[in-house]
Specification:
Blueprint lengths: L6 E5 L5 H10 L3 E5 L3 H8 L10 H10 L2 E4 L10 E4 L5 E2 L2 E2 L2 H10 L8 E4 L7 H14 L8 E4 L18 E5 L2 H12 L5 E3 L3 H32 L3 H8 L23 H13 L4 H11 L1 H14 L9 E5 L14 H11 L3 E5 L13 E2 L4 H6 L2 E4 L8 H7 L3 E3 L9 E3 L1
């Protein structure tokens, strides 16, 4: 069946679901974007994007095509050919929270017709597709997964703000509960991305997603811990990383920073450890150690700021601190699990007067007692210490170096006598 004759329902119109939905529109599919947040629905209907990888023009083009419709009513997806579940899977009290996946699955189930395809994209632990989603879909539809309808898993690999590895260009893992399901998942994604990679089962694909991000978390923790050790010994960790990176095999450079953020790195390793404890009774010590190190980096940054101020006969309490960047990564407005927010909270708790420059925000995040400011010579000069937490390309680094009294750089973007690096 040609794309123009197929209806795709994408549940969740956030950082993952919205780029996927618009890419499916470009490929010629009829797309229904399901979103439970009514304010998001209103914004999408007036072509007002809240996802940085999707422009207002992208939304306008999708809307003008007549193939993209946004709704909060699941009944509007009745008769779909393909449904993609792209909803959040956060942690609640330190454990996986699949309530959004469960809710989406239960709502989709009565709408499934024989021959339809359902794909879970949300990051989760191995077994979710077969042990959680499949029973819900079967119970609500009266159909059997892999027999009457097709079911698969294809983990998201969205990297917000990455212009090189976009949704379409990033290889897509595809899997199914049986061969027919896997083939259907692959056929669909072959139509909207450049390359798909088939995986034998959904559990292997689910584990692959967790492994990708746990690998990064562990290696970032290693270099974070090494950076703390190097600072104590007066060694330039950044030069050591550059030097080690010249080895053409057996080494992959990672860089230290104020911690890890985004939906994946602070959460996925905990999913992995939770499953190990649930199924085997063993905790993943290596993974937990990495989590502890990365979670401790905001405290370490605040400690270093206090030390830097003491050397200049100032106390952190009542010092004026200017933070550059609050999002979790450069050139992104994504605040999810951002370590910069943790640093800001700790500074406020320590009694510092904190201001922040964050071009991606119109106002400070709810619950954060920080005043937003513009990056000006006067603002920099008024701060007792300036802290580079997120190295957005739009920042004037020459101005930061020349106008600041002292800079603590967690991203290695500055070189100046008044700059101290993590």
């Amino acid at each position: 069946m040609r794309a123009t004759h197929r209806t795709v329902a994408v549940i969740g119109q956030g950082y993952v679901g919205l780029p996927l939905a618009l890419q499916a529109v470009r490929a010629g599919f009829q797309v229904i974007g399901l979103e439970v947040d009514e304010e998001r629905v209103r914004r999408l209907r007036r072509n007002d994007s809240y996802v940085e990888d999707v422009s207002d023009l992208d939304l306008m083009n999708a809307s003008d095509s007549g193939r993209y419709r946004v709704t909060s009513d699941f009944a509007d997806a009745a008769g779909f050919d393909v449904a993609i579940i792209s909803v959040p899977t956060p942690l609640t009290d330190g454990e996986p929270d699949l309530s959004a996946v469960v809710g989406a699955s239960a709502a989709l189930a009565p709408l499934i017709k024989p021959g339809a395809l359902v794909v879970l994209e949300s990051t989760t632990y191995p077994g979710t597709t077969e042990d959680v989603v499949a029973p819900l879909l079967e119970q609500g539809s009266g159909l059997t997964a892999g027999v009457d309808f097709l079911l698969g898993y294809s983990p998201e690999r969205i990297d917000p703000g990455n212009a090189s590895w976009t949704f379409a260009k990033t290889p897509k893992l595809v899997s199914g509960v049986n061969d027919a399901s896997r083939a259907a998942v692959q056929e669909f994604f072959d139509a909207i991305v450049d390359r798909t990679v088939a995986v034998s089962g959904t559990r292997e694909a689910e584990l692959a997603k967790l492994l990708e991000n746990t690998f990064r978390s562990v290696n970032i923790a290693l270099v974070n811990e090494t950076a703390m050790f190097a600072a104590d010994l007066g060694i330039d960790i950044w030069e050591a990383i550059r030097a080690a990176g010249t080895k053409p095999f057996g080494f992959m450079p990672f860089t230290p920073g104020p911690g890890v953020g985004g939906h994946c790195l602070p959460i996925d390793p905990i999913y992995l450890d939770w499953l190990s404890r649930e199924r085997t009774g063993r905790s993943l010590g290596f993974v937990n150690l990495a989590n502890d190190i990365n979670r401790g980096m905001p405290d370490y940054v605040v400690q270093r700021l206090g030390d830097a101020l003491k050397k200049r006969d100032r106390l952190l309490a009542d010092s004026r601190v200017l933070l550059l960047g609050l999002s979790y990564k450069a050139n992104s407005s994504d605040m999810r699990e951002s370590p910069a927010l943790d640093v800001a909270h700790r500074l406020v708790e320590a009694g510092a007067r904190v201001r922040a420059v964050e071009p991606g925000l119109a106002s400070a995040p709810v619950g954060l007692d920080v005043e937003l400011a513009a990056l000006t010579e006067e603002e920099l000069a008024a701060a007792d210490i300036t802290v580079l937490l997120t190295d957005h390309d739009c920042f004037d680094y020459d101005l930061v170096a020349s106008a600041s009294q002292h800079v603590f750089d967690t991203r290695n973007r500055l070189r100046d006598r008044a700059v101290e690096r993590i």
